Queue: 2 jobs
Job 1
Amino acid sequence: MRTRNLGILMTCGALAALSLTISSVSVAQAPPASAATPLPAIAPSIPPAYVVNLATAEGMTAFKAQWKNMDVKIVEAPAMPNAGAAWKTSYDITPKARGGGHLFMTWFRASLTVPAKIGDFDTAGATAVLSFTIDDYAEAWVNGQMPRRAGRPSPATIQGFNMPNRVVLAEQVKPGDRFQVAILGINGPISLAPPNPVFFREAKVEFFR
């Protein structure tokens, strides 16, 4: 009986040591953690108190803004470090592209300045949400950040195939607040690129109380 118990203990000890070894190897081979990025704030689901249409000249004038865009194309680049022998090159983008049945990408940029009043609506203290739909896929940056989390939905900043993006600019805006907006638009599906270029289906700022 003692011999049997001793054998069981030795087996358990060996398994524990093996588990510890595998765990140590896994930790050693794991890629370094990426820098933390903030989670996107979730936009309110109630009807907005006021909406400004950024697809109109009047709407952009309210924010003292103007849309600018720069086309993008994919170019070949050197292989990524430690990518492995099978990967001889990588790819990057440069600000030029052509549409018409090919993958088409473009940057849309604008600097929005919150006014004290739009029509009869006082903006101070309101939650401001940038709501837009790109045909077909979009990534949104605000003031140099794209809040997101791998493995979690990011409906605010990353969205695809004509799904709306709703980015919370601020939960309590103040007159004079400025937001540098940069939106990368891509036509799609990427594996079956349509003949049309990238365009806004809608773009607006929603205010909530």
Job 2
Amino acid sequence: MLSRSGVIPSCRDSEESHARCVNMRGPSRSFGMTGCESHGIGETQSQKSNINNQTSNMNIGFVGVGRMGANMARRLVDCGVHVTAVYDVNRGAATKLADELRCAACQNLSEVTAESDVIITVVSDDAAMRKIFAKSGDSLLVNANGKLFINCATITPRVHIEVEELAGKAGARALEACMASSITQARDGSLYLMCGGKEETFRAAHPILEKLGKTVRYVGKAGEAAKVKALVNMVMNINTAGLAEGLGLGEALRLNLAMLREVFSETGAASRVLQTDGEDMQNREHSCFFSAAHAAKDSGIALDLARDLGLELPLARATKQQYDAMIAEGLGELDKSGIAELTFKDRHKHSGNRV
């Protein structure tokens, strides 16, 4: 039975993994954490053994093995799970990961389904999701009877609902498992996962999900977790833009930015984004953990939801305009912290050797 909050009671993060989650940048960027740690509270050895037995008998496929998907696959392999197939539109990325994990690099989506009991998808947008779950032609839905799809992309709620319906017609099950974390957490199994779909599907997916996440939260029916994720990213993006403006103004005022960030951290200006992005904004270190292009997309999802309800969100709209401006200037693949390049004085004219 789920707790009232929707969190599986056995899921927690250790003090160590919490520290890694809080400090997602800096020293914790390295992927040195390779062991499969249990995140359970009060689990008996027999319970842990039962969970391990369940997952060790599963064959897992991955569709989308970019920064997040590849590290999730590595994490499962570290935990003794059989990753049997990977697929990506970037054939080179799929082949390289398949060689590393000693699994198949599939040329067709239907091959992934054939090779796997559970297929985890991590794709970029609505169009990509609809393509991999196409009603005809090469599709994950070919011979999908009895399969379980775990879909981790940040996309519009209606597409998650569509996919659940399509999977059901094919005799399969689908669960959305939206991620509120980044690359490092994908690698060390400390993702924050918000899940939507049928509760029995969530239960079936949980043995895999708990190896990937420090918190695995059931939100509700299909589409509900995607709504929550859209709001998480909308607020995060607004915070990021606000921090960039604060630090940009601080620099223009010739304040010591290290001091300013410390003051921010101890006052009402504190935020998770300050911890992860503040120093990077100051130092123009924008290695990509979450791209500006994805930030623009995700803010757009939230704005579309608001528009459908007749709700105006001026801060979210202004933030999306900033990220759209980054894309227009060719900065869309910088980390979201790169929004500081638009707000710090004299950074708005870019050259390749400056960013």
